[in-house]
Write a structure and sequence with these properties.
Blueprint (H helix, E strand, L loop, with lengths): L7 H15 L1 H6 L6 E5 L2 E5 L3 H8 L2 H7 L9 E5 L19 H5 L26 H12 L8 E4 L6 H15 L5 E5 H13 L4 H9 L3 E5 L8 H16 L3 E6 L11 H7 L3 E4 L5 H15 L7 H10 L4 H18 L5 H7 L1 H11 L3 H12 L3 H5 L5 H17 L4 H8 L3 H17 L1 H16 L1
Amino acid sequence: MGKNTLSAAEVWDIAVSRLKMESETLYNSYFVRLPALTLEGDLLSLGVSDFFLADVIRGYDDMLCKALTNIYGNSYRYELIEGHELNPVAEFSAPVQSPAPAAVESGTAKKSSRLKPALYTFDNFITGYNNRHACAAAKSVAKIPGEIYNPLFLYGTNGVGKTHLLQAISHQIAIDHPQMTVNYVTCDEMLNDYYELLKQKRSIADFRAGLCNVDVLLIDDIHRLAKKPVLQEEFFNVFNILCRQNKQIVLTSDRQPCELSDIDKRLSSRFEQGMICQVGMPEYEEKVMILRMWREATLTRPPLSDEILDFLAENISSTVRRLKGSFLRLSAFAEMNGCELSIEEAENLLHAQLAQESLARDISPENIQRTVANHFGITLADMIGKCRSRNVADPRMVAMYLCRKLTRLSSNEIGDVFGRTHANVLHAAKTITDRCNSDDQLRRSVNQLERQLQKH
């Protein structure tokens, strides 16, 4: 059988069946979810959702190349094309007692076709200090849509669980309010719909109707509206229509509304009229719980040891996505080799990820002191001096808080840098954490400083 007689789907089906025999863990998590796009000569194009997934897939290049070798006497190369929807196959998440399909679908609920099956629910969302307020607000919205927090605006860096909460809201509404119409859409998908409508020379009213004829509108990554004034105007009108009708709106973004640039002030002010919640990266204890949940769901033999899970929780701190990718890579290796993994083997397998994590955390306390001092208009001498006036003491506590969060230094080591004790450092970290929950201006300053430090 020649190369030209096989389609992209046929080649990939054969390769995927081989990959399943190599590692059922990776098969279920990644390979079976990749759509085959085109086959030109010996080059097979596969779809991935984003650059992160592409990076994870490339980590298994040897396995992929082997699976694409000697298919009816021919061998194939592959490329990954970003921006494609994955096949709807269940991912690794905690086992949940989902309602019978009839219980959800018996009503007239209309869910967006872009919404994935019940992979992301409140039951398998691990709550901790950095996301508990966002989770509580999301649950309230799902319980009584349009009657409490409207809009609900969730913000945080990539890979911390914003999309998980957004889809959990939709699934919970489908269960509790099956008569409601729910539309989940990413901002990019909304943009594509708008441009497609213009291309087809259809009325703008059709675009508005698609967004307005719902009870609940969920939009992921609303910051992508930046520098698109015409679409911002249209969404402003949609927003006002839904609010007047007490229809629920939930938005996610990588920044809070006041930090969104190139967004019409009228629109960003609308975003601020409801509840704004930050979704932060889970702390060590929550990461361990998440990893144990994944371990229970994967059924890898042998399962990763508690020691390996602790190693991952301690060393992967950037995003939950990277934590999951690292977990799956180690699980697959253990499964393929049929033996427990050592810390040394884990370090070798994850050397690239660990290097990136280390680089992200390689921020000196002196740089933190200098950056915080410049931000608040005090001197470095003030930062390490004895002055206790609030205009100096507050920036000093912010700097100690950031040293705790962004460096590997112990409390004693941080205390030495500031001429304080470890108890002073712990007190400063707790004080700033508590005040950020009630002082929006301080929280904005701390978030801005953290992003500024991590850019360098």
